[in-house]
Amino acid sequence: MSFVLLGLSLLAASVAAGVPARVSYVITPRLEQRRLEVATAVSASAFTRLCVDMPGAGGALRDVVLHPADGGSPTELQADPDDEDCVHLPSARTQASLRYVVDLAALSRHHNDADFASELPGGWVFHDAAVLLHPADLPDDAELRVEFVVRAGVSVATPWKADGPGRFVFSGRQHDAGAYVALGALRTLAPITTPQGTAQLTVLDAPKRASDATLRDWLARQLSTLSAYYRAWPSTWPGPLHVVLAGVPADEAGVFGTVLRRQAPSVLLLFGAQATQGFDDDWVALHELFHLGNPPIDGRFAWFIEGFTTYVSELLRGRAGARDEARVWGDLAQGLRTYCQPEDGVSLGQASRELRRVQNWQRVYWGGACLALRVDVAIRQRSKGKQSLDDVLRALRSSKVKLTEAQVVEALDAAVGGPLARTHLASRTPLPLDELLRALGVGAVVDGRAVLDDSARLARLRRDLVSAPLP
After folding, report:
1. 273 by DSSP, 3-state: which?
2. Is the model's pTM score more than 0.85?
């Protein structure tokens, strides 16, 4: 209670002085009980609701209690009474002090991913937008401060700016962009430092067969490949890259990954705890880290962000020497032949718009990769090999404003010299993929390797796509 009262007095002074909204939190993890105990003090323009941002996360709030600044009796509030992930206050106010509990187990059971909360060997990873209650209209310039009170053996890793041991400060804009927070038995690996940038690596300390050096080399290799591709550090954020590594029961090297990149970036990579090899040839980390360099976009169009990332990251494994040309085209040809064509008259554009409802992930990812291949080949043909899709993606990445889907399509079609992207996205009938693969000399796939025909009309272009050295 003393923290809350102190916080309120300080925040009241801030409001009187016209300082932007401030929200402070003290979080006490009770990991053995799979919960977080949170005390928060809020000072902002008049508000009646405090909300978490992740849809459905309000269902994991427990024991929400409002504490009056005058020391009066606390008031228990109903958590998320209308399924809008908010707590309603008795009346409008400019200051509030609350205590509440976040049921990590409920977040994990209901959503089972780190965009809510994920229990992993060695600890937890959660998304701050699923945990931190704040005024419903949190301004970008709001100041948020978080202090973790942890027992021995538990530590925390976040991308936020440190403000003392266990204390962090960040903006409303950063909170809107999101952060992955790791709690538990954590170890810090030696940072990856290059002339372009720095990555800070944290591993959840649990049994694994791969050495720390293997994990660090895994990330260093992929970041080097991407720095060469982008001709810059993959992330445009000026601060260090925050990477959390966690081993899970599996034999493969890369198992799953996810990235938050709009402000200080967060990366979560899951690897196989039983894996001892395969890190040199892994696609998961390369794919996820490639996202750090995706252009800023306005809205969701996964055919581009996921599809083009799928295509280029496959090529980069060949360019970096991780696999030969036949293996690269084996993977590409299998994915493209299976998922490029419209299904039941549904275009790629429509499938992408309906992705979260229909969850036809492979169709959208590989359908986008199919468009990327067609665009890349067309650009190289038009420029007689002097330009490629790589140049377009680097140019889009440098945009200072968020790009709409229409602007991205326009840029792709301008590079091609015709409406290839627009018509591909709208097509509900078969696309000329088989003809293109034949022209490239990509035949049947046998044991994961494509049969390649070096006498094909576009065989040289095919070799350039994979074998061209990184810049």
Report:
1. coil
2. yes
